């Protein structure tokens, strides 16, 4: 089988992992790397480090991965579309909805696969969670709450924590619930001396009635990546940092303690931690992109989906600026 010739734009903190995985995926051959900043992590190997996207295209590639700062996504994507190159763009799709729409239009007009790297969709805990919800293991879903906290990453300078991190939670929530956002309200704060927000707290509702809540920041000394889905039969807790999925069932044992027996809510039941296969999400994401390019069935995150996520994030940031909830 002939391999897809792959090019990688950007070999920084995220790009270095793309370089490794591109060399591991069957049916893909990494043939060119470009980064105007050179190769700080030494991942190029025998490949020369090209200066820009134009040189990458000139290398004769079939697919490209774009892992440069967000403000450069649009320029790279438009040039790749014009050259007939399928592209996987790191999240968020672009710095603005308008730029993202131009990217969507360019790839649609060229008949190319345009994908966005919302990697949490390929996390084993979330994939298993979505499957179990779809199978009815939770019954009716009431609420999805996420926490994504950690120290400030000095490498992120062109967007705030909303577009950089909260985009994960917005995308995974709509995907797990299989329903879109219809309203959102948010609060932000600026504590690190930059022009962009470093903490966002958002709440909203999906079209199917599920209440959502997100706490995201770059101000915590502890790293946390948790998704909690509460429903009719209990609650699922997915730790996406470890790929673990745990189910807390509603209790079925009669309560004999008189002072709490009159409470009409739920009680604690069995706790189950599932043993699931844990493949690396980035590798699964690349396989999905490869399959989409080859015309095979694929769950790749499309540019249209990435654009919808960005629209929700921008609405959340606008809600914080206006101090009022917004409909979507």
UniProtKB/TrEMBL annotation:
<dbReference type="Pfam" id="PF01408">
    <property type="entry name" value="GFO_IDH_MocA"/>
</dbReference>
<feature type="domain" description="GFO/IDH/MocA-like oxidoreductase">
    <location>
        <begin position="127"/>
        <end position="236"/>
    </location>
</feature>
<dbReference type="InterPro" id="IPR055170">
    <property type="entry name" value="GFO_IDH_MocA-like_dom"/>
</dbReference>
<protein>
    <submittedName>
        <fullName>Gfo/Idh/MocA family oxidoreductase</fullName>
    </submittedName>
</protein>
<dbReference type="Pfam" id="PF22725">
    <property type="entry name" value="GFO_IDH_MocA_C3"/>
</dbReference>
<dbReference type="InterPro" id="IPR051450">
    <property type="entry name" value="Gfo/Idh/MocA_Oxidoreductases"/>
</dbReference>
<feature type="domain" description="Gfo/Idh/MocA-like oxidoreductase N-terminal">
    <location>
        <begin position="5"/>
        <end position="118"/>
    </location>
</feature>
<keyword id="KW-0520">NAD</keyword>
<dbReference type="InterPro" id="IPR036291">
    <property type="entry name" value="NAD(P)-bd_dom_sf"/>
</dbReference>
<dbReference type="InterPro" id="IPR000683">
    <property type="entry name" value="Gfo/Idh/MocA-like_OxRdtase_N"/>
</dbReference>
């Amino acid at each position: 089988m002939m391999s897809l010739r792959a090019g990688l734009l950007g070999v920084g903190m995220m790009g270095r992992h793309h370089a490794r995985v591109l060399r591991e995926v069957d049916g893909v051959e990494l043939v060119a790397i470009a980064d105007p900043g050179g190769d700080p992590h030494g991942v190029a190997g025998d490949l020369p480090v090209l200066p820009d996207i134009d040189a990458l295209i000139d290398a004769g590639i079939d697919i490209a991965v774009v892992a440069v700062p967000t403000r450069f996504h649009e320029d790279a994507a438009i040039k790749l579309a014009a050259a007939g190159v399928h592209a996987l763009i790191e999240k968020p799709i672009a710095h603005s909805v308008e730029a993202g729409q131009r990217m969507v239009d360019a790839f649609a007009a060229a008949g190319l696969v345009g994908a966005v790297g919302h990697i949490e969709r390929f996390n084993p805990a979330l994939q298993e969670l979505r499957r179990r919800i779809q199978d009815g293991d939770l019954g009716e879903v009431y609420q999805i709450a996420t926490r994504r906290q950690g120290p400030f990453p000095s490498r992120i300078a062109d967007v705030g924590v909303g577009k950089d991190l909260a985009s994960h939670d917005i995308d995974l929530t709509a995907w797990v619930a299989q329903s879109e956002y219809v309203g959102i309200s948010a609060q932000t704060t600026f504590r690190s001396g930059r022009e962009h927000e470093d903490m966002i707290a958002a709440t909203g509702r999906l079209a199917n009635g599920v209440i959502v809540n997100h706490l995201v920041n770059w101000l915590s000394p502890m790293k946390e990546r948790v998704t909690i889905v509460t429903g009719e039969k209990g609650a699922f807790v997915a730790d996406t940092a470890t790929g673990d999925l745990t189910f807390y069932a509603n209790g079925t044992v009669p309560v004999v303690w008189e002072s709490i027996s009159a409470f009409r809510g739920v009680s604690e039941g069995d706790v189950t931690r599932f043993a699931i296969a844990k493949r690396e999400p980035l590798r699964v994401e690349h396989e999905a992109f490869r399959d989409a390019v080859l015309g095979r069935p694929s769950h790749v995150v499309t540019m249209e989906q990435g654009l919808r996520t960005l629209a929700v994030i921008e609405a959340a940031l606008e809600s914080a600026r206006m101090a009022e909830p917004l409909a979507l």
